[in-house]
Amino acid sequence: MAPARALQIPPICRLPPELLIHIFVSCSDAPSDELTPVLLGQVCRYWRDVTYLSPRIWQRIYLYEHHPVSISHDQAAWWIYKSDPLPFDVRVETQTIDMILPLLSPVLSQMRRWRRCTISGAHEEEFDLSRHEFDRGRDCLVDELNILVKGVSAISALGLNADSDASDDRPPSSIFRVQEPSDGPPELSMHLSVYALPLATVMKPIPVASLCITEFSLDVTTDVVRMLNFLRCTPLLETLHFAGWPQEGEPILAGFLFPVRLPKLRILLLRSTCSVRAILSHLDAPALEELYLEHTNVDFELRTDPYVAAQYPPEEGESDDEAHDFSQSPWSDHATGMGLRALLKRSRPPLQVLHMDYADMRTKDFRWCFDRLDRLREFRIVGSDMSDRVVGMLAPYRKRWLAFGLANLKEADDPRGSWAVRLPSLTKLAIWHCQRVSGDALVEVLQERVRFTDRAAEEGRSDTMESVAIVGCSEFLFQHGQELGQTLGERLRIT
């Protein structure tokens, strides 16, 4: 009777597990949105045991745009778990190029196990990671993520997608690009052209260290709220570059902006944007070491965003500059100064490099920041309307000492304790094309500072200037250079 009962069992169920696994792998290899391994496991208990205990069956991850994003994210996480520790392939099919990054986001943190990534639909690309000797000790192999925001103007009447170029017949650029340095492992970058930054609600955290966001044209207006929410999906970011256009976006209402914490951010560059205040005021970057502000000056009046007007009491420094120094860009000066104040107050970063290239502040903002940048080693300012008052802040000053709650000047019998300099760690100073600074002020201030810091450095109490560059300042004449050169020597560079 036993042989008779055995004959009643279907032949497929009598196959040994090794052969059944081979069949299931062949079924799972074919692109399908039917979640093949899951369906196979629902046939019977034997098949379920075979599929759930064999990582080989789960080595193909197929992600489709027409599925809800949350379902695709859960699917990717389950396939990654079931295929462990084997490598896996990823295939993304979407007709909307903006969905490529959201669909890839849950698998980017497991790139050390990637073999191949295939993208089809709006963009066609196949990238074989096995051809390159990447450092597989890292979870995410992407060294830099570049996002070009084109806006809805990228959609033409002919239905061109954001990765197209209507001006010629060149093929679409690759998303995955590899550079092979001579002295290290290959470097991988991702380049995406999108209509808008992905919403945080359709993203999983992506562990990239470097992010560059560029707005394509004036047709794109900066959506600060959306950008900050997107940055929440990059918690391990170390370098952030943002380049926009000098135009205002939509008004930012109260209750929509919240600080985003980037604990590892070391380098920040903001270029050509009117949203400096909103961005700087809502970044929490306690490890920030280098800040670059470029081409943020504008000569038109910036509105006061509703979220700023709703603050009560107003932030410290919101009032007009008491110095009343001339500026060609008073509104952007105010915005930059208030943004930098907010960043320094919230994060207290160990800032070492500050470059302000056609990015200015009010006199009171320079004073406030200089008093708090004790670790700044390099300061470069280009095209500023700063006055001699700002330059004078670099000279040694007499400290006030507190005694019994009253501010008193310490007596002259303790010259070391009664004098100090702002930016005490400063070693490199560059002043380029600042036309309102007089040569006499530059000579007097820098001579006093260098003499003071040279003595302090000899005694091991402070750093001193290693290089000073004064370039293109119309009021700094030949005789000023000669006089200052007597103190600075080869440390001075002038043109």
Short description:
The chain is of the alpha/beta class. 29% of the residues lie in helices and 21% in strands. It has helices spanning 2-8, 17-29, 36-41, 45-53, 69-83, 100-108, 224-231, 276-280, 306-309, 330-347, 363-370, 388-392, 415-418, 439-458, 478-488; strands at residues 60-64, 88-94, 114-121, 125-128, 142-149, 176-179, 187-194, 210-215, 239-243, 260-261, 267-271, 283-284, 290-294, 353-357, 378-382, 397-398, 400-403, 406-409, 419-420, 428-432, 467-471, 492-494.
List the defining traits of the structure above.
495 residues; alpha/beta; 4-stranded mixed sheet
Description:
By secondary structure, this protein is an alpha/beta fold. It contains 15 helices and 22 strands. It has helices at residues 2-8, 17-29, 36-41, 45-53, 69-83, 100-108, 224-231, 276-280, 306-309, 330-347, 363-370, 388-392, 415-418, 439-458, 478-488; strands at 60-64, 88-94, 114-121, 125-128, 142-149, 176-179, 187-194, 210-215, 239-243, 260-261, 267-271, 283-284, 290-294, 353-357, 378-382, 397-398, 400-403, 406-409, 419-420, 428-432, 467-471, 492-494. The strands form 5 sheets. It has a 12-stranded mixed β-sheet, covered by helices on one side. Strands 1-2-3-4 form a 4-stranded mixed β-sheet, with helices on one face. The chain has a two-stranded parallel ribbon with strand order 10-12. The N and C termini lie far apart (104 Å). Mean pLDDT is 88; it is low at 156-162, 164-170 and 402-413.
